[in-house]
């Protein structure tokens, strides 16, 4: 009986030791990354400049009062999944994404934005308006250029009309800012 009790105590102590050793290894890895200045790249937890206001996303969304003391809120969130690729030529994967913003009215505004990978994590860029109540199709990155495809309304059509006009827009990151760009292969006008 005593041998069984000692064996049981030994197994409990061994299990506790293994658990403590695993926890210590995880903590040491985290401390090592912090010492090297590495923060995980996560574009869903970054700040973006939308219409002149810094919007800080937490888990891909933000909600702030429309005005001080107001019950109305401005909601911002990421639409779909970010596209991954190098946007600034530094050899690291950055992200291109679509942001959606609604201030409680009938408008739902879509923006293109980017998040650059830095030692401090994801650094969001400015957001560029694509349109109100458009129908996003996809976003991708190729050769440092972002391509956004979506459907919009024809000129003069009311907002109640379903978007049916195919639109492709291109963007690049220049000096940390997102800028509209011509389609690849299009001669630039100087």
Brief overview, please?
It is built from 1 helix and 12 strands; from the N terminus they run αββββββββββββ.
Layout of SSEs?
Layout: H1 2-35, E1 47-50, E2 53-56, E3 61-65, E4 73-85, E5 94-102, E6 109-118, E7 121-124, E8 128-132, E9 135-142, E10 145-152, E11 165-174, E12 177-181
Antiparallel strand pairs: 1-2, 3-4, 4-5, 5-6, 6-7, 6-8, 9-10, 10-11, 11-12
Written overview of the protein:
- The structure is a single chain.
- This protein is of the alpha+beta class and 190 residues long.
- The protein has 2 domains: 1-38; 47-181, no CATH class.
- The protein has one helix at 2-35; strands at residues 47-50, 53-56, 61-65, 73-85, 94-102, 109-118, 121-124, 128-132, 135-142, 145-152, 165-174, 177-181.
- The chain is extended and about 90 Å long.
What features would you highlight for this structure?
single chain, six-stranded antiparallel sheet, alpha+beta, four-stranded antiparallel sheet, 2 domains, 12 strands, extended, 190 residues
